[in-house]
Specification:
The structure holds three protein chains of three kinds. Chain A is mostly helical. Helices cover 74% and strands 0% of the residues of chain A. Chain C contains 21 helices and two strands.
Chain lengths: 224, 657, 497
């Protein structure tokens, strides 16, 4: 698949923006803003997929699917859940400044890793070439950031956002790893993701109502 | 009916009995009689079957449908001997249980079915030729006996004892299973005969594997047989916990199945070879260890059944010593080896009878007096004269006094071990140890006799146990004497039992001469002689003289208690005395002997809980607690584990590539 | 309707769904929910019999261009899932209507929740059946993830703090874990796509043929991802922490399903995916073996110190799953046979034990060993069944667990893995320790609580599944020939050889 120079550049810059928004969604303490940033991230992802679709038209359907599920539904779910929550999240385990350092290290590390060992990782020769190589790096970074978010945020709601980011990373990687995947399969995957996020949020809501807390530090009644 | 049919018939009757007794559990006496009738008929049939196998030419094989398990039942003469012993003792255990069990006031549906199945399991263990079936019966036996041990489950110490028994039995089963797996890999079969056939090949090609197999078998069967460093962990706890007829079965016959295993795999399966000699010497060594340890520890006990349990360890030592000496000498091809085998196996039969008897008598005391503590017993000779008589007979047998059964086997053992000095220099030393321990066993059995039956009376009323219990005691007591006086017949049976296992075994008369007297022949010369009639005669004359001597001097008086009547029973002369004297006399005079002190040994066994389990448990608990606390409940930790797990999987897969 | 393979499979997977929908719609009804659930879970069981028959006759059956495929391996799981599902639905019939819960939330809300419960229950069953019948590598992932989603609310059915906490950890840990394996599925798919000329590159049957042409690195990488992802679902240590929480806090019928079949479904996915590589990549098997042994020992050790009976059984599940995975990674015929036997004995024994604990909870609302004691006098049948389960777990003849463990031990000896043999025996000793200890401290000894004096045997609808499982545990222990054709067919199956 051939992409024009501009599209490749556009993809690169959008990818960078996506990393930044992911980081923002993880570290922003205001829950509402974090959700908005997530929405931007999802929108960016939709756009990136759409840009990839210029060379492979089937990806337009992917883009549409991502737009509906990742952007519309999940953002709506998150926003409707946010009502009644305090404005700010519970203080995270790792603060903003160290997080920034860690995130930078992660980005550089994963970029280096995917570029140096791309032959090692990539299932097909296509994935070893630009812009797919960058795509793999970016999606892995977002996946790692999502995981990082879940690992370091104490607020259960933020872990849900972390999970969404993680799933977005996985979804984005499909573009370069498995562009030939059938649409029904993609729909199956995203349905799972959406339902999973819904169930998670529903349970967190229950926790907030019954236990009165969404702090994972306090959710340690089941132990040993 | 052929022997095979009799055997299977016996199995069937035992099974039917188990089902019936499970139904009539609420009516204890009725259920007891049902159990006795079925147990009696079933065991009688297996008894007759085993006799027919022992005397006759053929072996029992029963071909089941190939698809299920190819021909699992097979009784050769070695197995037949064990069936003989098991069935014989079981009959009396059933007879004794009828009245005995009533003082537990519990539903007997938890007792009789398991008792019937237990005997079935034991007979099953010794009558199969397939390792798989062997393991199934072995576990079946363990399971049913475990349920019997914890019959009185409302007492926590019984549950603990039962648990120890179960746990150690499964360590034993684990060892046997590893060996089985090793054998299976080598032979691709579970069949004993194929094991036997492949043995020479394994010993040539993989000597290490052969030795590991044998070592594991020895540990596994040794645990069951109560061999010293292994068996003492469960045996002293489990025997007292079980109801007395079950103790009698456990100690009298079940631990013998361990010996059966040793005989089957070290004698029958191994071809005469240097390996056999080496393992024989090892078994003999463990035998000596057990007999020393068991006998000394028994002396220290304050509980009748515990004393008897330790004594079982000691007596198993004799049996193992005999078998070990026999195995060690077998490759050297000398008749001494056969004498040692006969001694060991004959002692096994004797032990079954007298230890069964002694446990039943302990049960009688428990039945009437409600305690097994020597400190709270005394003077029972008046209230329970028949039981006293039975215990005296058992004591004379276990002490190895002529003309009782224990004497003949110990005598055979000691002389065969002593005469083998040229071949194995250590055996005479073992023989000395056995003789010495024989003396100690008289001491501990006198402790039992003296503390329980002599001394101050605890009450005057004459109330011996019910008739059925007396009968079982009486018959076994009689056998203690008969098997000594007419030792020829059981010895012939023992000789039969070895025919399948030792090729080219000389005939009985070549070994032991003819007639009622036993004259072991070495190179055509009688090297010793046991003539019961002569001994009886001389004993009679001696007794007459002695009686004449003391006739005029006999007078009745109260036990001397230091001038005044003690205010409390606890202050009277105690059963400790039997041990303290010995301890003072022997051990304090040689304080610097670099040997493990007998107190230490005694303590190790008297409460294995404190010395062995607790440090282990503590250590384990600390470790497990750390593991447990790692599950802190914090979500983030768990996710971190996933990430670490991912890293480990990466390292493993790419590292192992 | 013609009983083609396609119809059968489709009906098998989909038949619980209309009932699920009906229960959801009729959730206000007081009487219809349970019968509908029982029927809905009975149909798959009824269908699995002809399916089994056909699988044994024809080797395998497939439908829709092999999108769905049932070979003997899947058939074991199909039977297991539908059977345990059916028994669990019978068990739930009386068990779920417990007074304290109804009193806490009020009858109206309770009925509504119960409707959702049964509806999700049937849906859960359907997703599990789907995941073991699909032949599509990505759909396998989708179905596995769907089982997580369907069961999350079931885990936190009681909607109290503990239940919700368990549900939260359950869904989050599982979703993260399983997402790893999505990468694995996609990697395998796209690496094999260029080599597959005809047919869909998503199907296992197609991928298997060209697996040797995929670059080794991709295979190893995806093996790692599968191990982490489906390993989490299967409850292998160190991915297990969700498991004890979920098992302990879920309502007992759900614990039964989770322990008896859901983790096994995870194992099935692991087996299917790693089964693609196992023959030619020893490293994959060895690393799985390490994890398996680790779980085996860790689970048994932790089970020894648990007070809560359900938590104890949960840790024991980790250990038992370790056994199965151990047998699979030994990789010989005997290893597979032992693993499948162990699978069957675990599918029987663990639900049995959970149901016995459920019966105690139903009767006296106690489940901690320290509070129990002497229950056996009042509940003899439960006691007998619990002992059968505990003995089967610890491998005592003549129960199914003995044969399976013996086979595993022989398999490891056969493969000359002596250390493995010793560790297996060690852990079965530990199993014996905790299982028997739990059994007798709960059922014998002193009654430590006055509530126990009022204990009585649970109603028949609770005892029926318990008894059925006990009988089968015994039956498969004394008559292993019954299982032989199926297990043999699964063990000689090409993907693993």
């Amino acid at each position: 698949m051939e992409y024009s120079e501009t599209i490749v550049k556009l993809i690169s810059s959008l990818s960078f923006a996506m990393i930044v928004t992911s980081f923002g969604a993880v570290t922003t303490r205001n829950l509402r803003y974090a959700t908005y940033i997530y929405a931007v991230q999802a929108l960016l992802m939709t756009t990136i997929i759409a840009l990839y679709a210029t060379a492979a038209p089937t990806l337009f359907i992917w883009s549409a699917v991502a737009f509906i599920t990742k952007f519309l539904i999940i953002t709506w779910l998150l926003l409707s859940f946010i009502k009644g929550l305090p404005e700010y999240e519970i203080k995270a385990i790792i603060g903003f400044a160290p997080s920034a350092v860690i995130a930078t290290v992660l980005v550089v590390l994963l970029y280096e890793l995917t570029h140096k060992y791309v032959h090692f990782l990539a299932p097909t020769s296509m994935a070893t070439e630009e812009p797919f190589r960058t795509n793999v790096a970016v999606s892995l970074t977002i996946f790692a950031l999502g995981l990082y978010g879940i690992l370091t945020r104490r607020d259960a709601f933020k872990t849900a956002i972390g999970l969404c980011l993680l799933e977005n990373g996985a979804h984005l990687s499909l573009v370069s790893l498995a562009p030939g995947l059938h649409e029904t399969v993609i729909i199956g995957i995203v349905t799972d993701v959406v339902l999973g996020v819904y169930m998670l949020l529903y349970i967190i809501k229950g926790l907030r109502e019954v236990a009165g807390t969404t702090d994972t530090y306090q959710l340690t009644e089941l132990h040993w | 009916m052929t022997g095979t049919e009799l055997l299977l018939c016996g199995f069937g009757i035992l099974l039917v009995g188990a089902i019936l007794t499970a139904i009539f559990g609420r009516w204890a006496i009725l259920n007891g009689w049902i159990a006795f009738i079925f147990g009696f008929i079933g065991n009688l049939l297996t008894f007759i079957a085993s006799l027919s196998f022992l005397m006759g030419e053929g072996n029992a094989t029963y071909i089941m449908e190939e698809a299920i398990l190819p021909s699992i039942f097979y009784v050769d003469k070695l197995g037949a001997l064990f069936i003989l012993v098991i069935s014989f003792i079981s009959i009396f255990a059933f007879l004794y249980s009828i009245r005995y069990i009533e003082h537990y006031r519990k539903n007997t549906a938890l007792y009789y079915p398991f008792l019937l199945l237990f005997t079935l399991g034991m007979i099953g263990v010794v009558s199969v030729k397939n390792m798989f079936a062997f393991l199934v019966f072995w576990e079946f036996m363990t399971l049913t006996s475990y349920l019997l041990v914890i019959y009185q489950s409302e007492r926590p110490e019984n549950l603990l004892a039962g648990f120890r028994y179960f746990f150690w039995s499964h360590i034993a089963a684990g060892c046997i299973m590893i060996s089985t797996a090793l054998l299976f890999v080598q032979t691709n079969s579970f069949d004993f005969f194929i094991f036997k056939g492949t043995m020479p090949k394994i010993s040539q090609q993989h000597p290490v594997i052969l030795h590991s197999i044998l070592a594991l078998f020895l540990i596994g069967f040794g645990i069951k047989a109560g061999m010293f460093p292994f068996g003492n962990f469960w045996l002293p706890d489990a025997h007292p916990a079980a109801p007395s007829p079950v103790s009698a079965l456990l100690s009298g016959v079940m631990i013998k199945t361990g010996v059966y295993g040793i005989l089957r795999f070290f004698l029958w399966m191994l071809p005469p070879s240097p390996e056999q000699g080496v393992w024989g010497a090892i078994i003999a060594f463990f035998g000596v260890l057990s007999l020393t340890f068991g006998t000394f520890s028994a002396l220290e006990q304050e509980d009748i059944k515990r004393l008897l349990a330790f004594s079982s360890i000691g007596q198993m030592g004799y049996i193992l010593l005999g078998i070990g000496v026999g195995l060690a000498l077998l490759p050297k091809n000398t008749p001494l080896s056969y004498f040692a085998f006969c001694a060991g196996i004959f002692h096994l039969m004797n032990h079954a009878v007298f230890k069964g008897l002694l446990f039943l008598s302990a049960g009688s005391i428990l039945y009437r007096k409600g305690t097994r503590d020597f400190g709270r017993l005394g003077g029972l000779i008046r209230s329970m004269p028949y039981t006293f008589f039975a215990v005296v007979m058992g004591a004379l047998a276990i002490g190895g006094l002529p003309p009782f059964s224990g004497f003949v086997s110990k005598w055979l053992l000691v002389f065969s071990a002593t005469l083998s000095a040229k071949l194995h220099y250590e055996f005479p030393i073992w023989a000395m140890a056995a003789l010495f321990a024989g003396g100690i066993s008289i001491a501990y059995i006198l402790k039992y006799l003296g503390s329980a039956f002599l001394g101050l009376r605890i009450d005057e009323k004459r109330e011996d146990v019910p008739l059925t219990m007396q009968i079982s005691q009486f018959v076994l007591a009689t056998f203690c004497l008969l098997m000594g006086v007419f030792a020829v017949y059981p010895l012939q049976v023992v000789h039969f039992s070895l025919q399948d296992s030792i090729p080219n075994l000389p005939s009985y008369s070549q070994l032991f001469g003819t007639g009622l007297s036993i004259t072991p022949q070495l190179r055509g010369l009688a090297v010793a002689i046991w003539n019961p009639l002569l001994i009886l005669l001389s004993l009679a004359i001696l007794s007459a003289i002695f009686y004449e001597f003391i006739r005029g001097t006999k007078k009745e008086s109260e036990v001397w208690v230091g001038g005044t009547m003690p205010p409390q029973r606890t202050l009277i002369y105690h059963s400790h005395g039997f041990f303290l004297t010995l301890r003072k006399g022997i051990w304090s005079n040689i304080p610097n002997l670099p040997l493990p002190r007998v107190e230490r040994l005694g303590r190790l066994s008297a409460s294995p809980g404190e010395d062995v389990y607790e440090p282990l448990i503590k250590m384990g608990r600390g470790f497990i607690d750390k593991l447990r606390r790692a599950h802190s409940g914090l979500l983030q930790t768990y996710i971190l584990w996933q990430v670490i797990g991912l890293a480990i999987a990466l390292l493993l897969i790419f590292g192992l590539k | 309707m013609v009983c083609t393979n396609a119809n059968l499979i489709l009906l098998l997977v989909l038949s619980p769904l209309p009932f699920s929908l009906a229960v959801l719609l009729l959730r206000r009804s007081y009487t219809l929910k349970e019968p509908l659930t029982i029927i809905g879970s009975f149909i798959p069981l009824a269908l699995s019999i002809p399916i089994l028959q056909r699988v044994l006759d024809e080797g395998y059956i497939s439908a829709f261009n092999e999108e769905f495929l049932i070979d003997p391996l899947s058939a074991i799981f199909v039977i297991g899932i539908s059977f345990v599902g059916f028994l669990a639905s019978i068990f739930a019939f009386r068990y779920m209507r417990q007074e304290p819960l109804i009193r806490r939330v009020g009858i109206e809300i309770f009925e509504r929740r119960l409707g959702i419960f049964y509806s999700l229950f049937l849906f859960f069953l359907s997703t599990m059946l789907w995941s073991v019948t699909t032949n599509n590598i990505v759909i396998l992932w989708v179905a596995i993830e769907a089982t997580t989603i369907a069961s999350a609310l079931l885990v936190s059915f009681y909607w109290d703090r503990r239940g919700l906490e368990a549900g939260y950890k359950y869904i989050l840990l599982l979703t993260i874990g399983v997402t790893f394996s999505l990468f694995g599925c996609v990697l395998v798919y796209s690496a094999s796509a260029p080599f597959i000329i005809s047919g869909s590159p998503l199907l296992f049957t197609n991928i298997k043929g060209i697996i040797s042409r995929i670059p080794a690195n991709v295979i190893l990488l995806s093996a790692v991802l599968f191990t982490v992802g489906f390993g989490t679902k299967a409850g292998l240590a160190p991915f297990h922490p969700w498991l004890p929480d979920a098992y302990a806090e879920a309502p007992t019928p759900i614990s039964v399903i989770l322990s008896g079949i859901m983790t096994e479904t995870g194992l099935y996915a692991l087996l299917r995916t790693l089964g693609l590589f196992l023959p030619s990549y020893g490293a994959v098997a060895s690393s799985l073996l390490v994890l398996a042994v680790f779980s085996m020992i860790l689970g048994a050790l932790l089970a020894m110190v648990q007070g809560d009976l359900k938590r104890l059984l949960a840790y024991s599940s980790i250990s038992q799953i370790g056994y199965i995975a151990m047998g699979l990674s030994v990789g010989t015929y005997l290893g597979y046979y032992g693993a499948f036997y162990q699978l069957v004995s675990h599918i029987l024994a663990k639900p049995l034990l959970f149901m016995c604990v459920g019966a105690i909870i139903y009767s006296i609302a106690l489940r901690n060993i320290d509070d129990l004691g002497g229950v056996g006098k009042h509940m003899p049948v439960t006691m007998a069944c619990f002992f059968i389960g505990a003995f089967s777990l610890s491998g005592i003849p003549p129960l199914a667990g003995f044969l399976s463990k013996l086979t595993l031990i022989i398999a490891s000896a056969d493969a000359h893995l002596w250390w493995l043999l010793v560790l297996t025996l060690l852990s079965s000793l530990l199993t014996l320790f905790y299982a028997v200890r739990a059994a007798y401290t709960a059922f014998w000894g002193k009654e430590k609580n006055e509530a126990i004096a009022k204990a009585k045997e649970a109603p028949l609808s609770i005892l029926f599944p318990v008894l059925t499982l006990s009988i089968l545990t015994f039956l498969f222990g004394v008559y292993p020939q019954l299982l032989y054709p199926l297990l043999h067919a699964a063990s000689v199956l090409a993907p693993f050889k």
